UniProtKB/TrEMBL annotation:
HAMAP family: GatA. Its EC number is 6.3.5.7. This is Glutamyl-tRNA(Gln) amidotransferase subunit A. Residues 1-443 form the Amidase domain.
Length: 451
């Protein structure tokens, strides 16, 4: 049924870069056969899922939304892919994304944009716009995203779906193409809080193949999602997450959510986290710096596309020509920014200062979590904007992640879930819930209570 739905609507939505009909049907049949034999089934047996095209899939193309990996067929599965298969999930295909997960609209995909199912002229968020659009257009009940600065939560917010960025290190990065390794985190996307929890439990957990993987039990997220409650909880509202640039309807729905939390028995605490004002600037030095280093491996020799390999160019020229042809403008902008910020003479002023700001943000969160159990905010300052509207203005695009980025810099956990439609445009608004590191279960407990 889901393959038929994809067939019927994805020409318009363009959520998928690759639909793996054969693979999906084979996985579904394998589940049926297991069931017929009376074998024990995985926890998500037969449930279809849309996988962001940043995770390697053995024998199935993985492009990261880039021309530089066009035609590359990975010889191995990411740890996350393996865990999905072990849970008997049916992987429908790979979803569209901003190239190398750099963007907030999916317009930076080398394979064309994805439409927001609520209004196809609007962006579905980014970088994981393919995954969020697949959920919102009922092409898949579950999806996977990755969140470096907001790429799970912002797409969830603008498509009226649920997205969770788990604690940094909770979900293995092995086989997840690296953008900014100290920030990147895979996580679950779904249409309900409980669905997200069921997927979270399957993909999280220690992986010896990822050196930053957390070696601790997965927080009880499913139990929390089944027992939503905020009674007696202290909920923080951060002063810095409102003001100029926030759409009136977004603030209205957010304020109503805070009222609802109060009615349900939460105590609201006002918080002042002044370092959050610097988060965006710090992020746009740290993320490009790490990206300039991570993307050095795309040299035209190891993977995917190669340009200028006609016997007339040196290896160095082939690398240069391949990168020139293979990377899109946003990726080039970031590699150049990062190379500059890391260069000797500028390192202290840019990368060094950004790391100091990162420490301040972590401390502001620590202080906040001495006073509250969770923090709430709008997920994004505005609802979905029009395709093309911010395409030529990187600064305007970067503002979409104003509320999501502090969490990535500090490494703690956050969720976005729908909290109504903005009155002025009828588009979905997201409520963000933020919890301390390894307290991911609190997101689900609060999320299930207000859903
Ligand atoms: N929009 C942010 C960026 O462009 C975040 C991307 C992400 O989380 N992958 O870097």
């Amino acid at each position: 049924a889901h393959l038929a739905r994809i067939e019927a609507v994805d020409e318009k939505v363009h959520a998928f870069l690759h639909v793996d009909c054969e693979g999906a049907l084979a996985q579904a049949r394998a589940v049926d056969e297991k069931r017929a034999r009376g074998e024990k089934l995985g926890p998500l047996a037969g449930v279809p899922l849309a996988l962001k095209d940043i995770f390697t899939t053995e024998g199935v193309p993985t492009t990261v939304g880039s021309k530089i990996l066009e035609g590359w067929i990975p010889p191995y599965d990411a740890t996350l892919t393996k865990r999905l298969k072990a849970a008997d999930v049916v992987i429908l295909g790979k979803t569209n994304m901003d190239e190398f997960a750099m963007g907030s609209s999916t317009e930076n995909s080398a394979y064309g944009p994805t439409g927001n199912p609520w209004d196809l002229t609007k962006i579905p968020g980014g970088s994981g716009g393919g995954s969020s659009a697949a959920l919102a257009s009922f092409q898949a009940p579950l999806a996977i995203g990755t969140d470096t600065g907001g790429s799970i939560r912002q797409p969830a917010a603008v498509t009226g779906t649920v997205g969770v960025k788990p604690t940094y290190g909770a979900v293995s990065r092995y086989g997840m193409v690296a953008f900014s390794s100290s920030l990147d985190q895979g996580g679950p996307c779904a249409r309900t809080v409980l669905d997200a929890a069921l997927l979270h439990e399957v993909i999280a957990g220690h992986d010896p193949l990822d050196s930053t993987s957390v070696d601790a039990p997965v927080p009880p997220v499913v139990e929390a999602a089944r027992n939503g409650s905020v009674t007696g909880m202290r909920v923080g509202v951060v002063k810095q997450f409102r003001g100029e640039g926030y759409q009136a309807g977004v603030i209205q729905r957010f304020d109503e959510s805070v009222e609802l939390l109060k009615e349900l028995g939460a105590e609201i605490v006002e918080l002042d986290c002044s370092s959050f004002d610097l988060a965006l600037s710090a992020y746009y030095l740290i993320a490009p710096s790490e990206c300039s280093s991570n993307l050095a491996r795309f040299d035209g020799l190891r993977y995917g596309a190669r340009t200028g390999d006609d016997g007339t160019h040196s290896a160095e020229e082939v690398t240069s020509l391949t990168r020139e042809a293979g990377f899109g403008p946003e990726v080039k902008r970031r590699v150049m920014l990062g190379t500059y910020a890391l260069s000797s003479g500028y390192y202290d002023a840019y990368y060094g200062s950004a790391q100091k700001v990162r420490t301040l943000i972590t401390r502001d969160f620590e202080k906040a979590f001495e006073q509250v159990d969770v923090i709430v905010s709008p997920t994004t300052p505005t609802t979905a904007f029009a395709i093309g509207e911010r395409a030529d203005d990187p600064m305007a695009m970067y503002l979409a992640d104003l509320c999501t980025i502090p969490t990535n810099l500090a490494g703690n956990a956050a969720m976005s879930l729908p909290c109504g439609l903005a009155p002025e445009d009828g588009l979905p608004v997201g409520l963000q819930i933020i919890a301390p590191a390894m307290k991911d279960d609190r997101l689900y407990k609060v999320g299930a209570a207000v859903e």
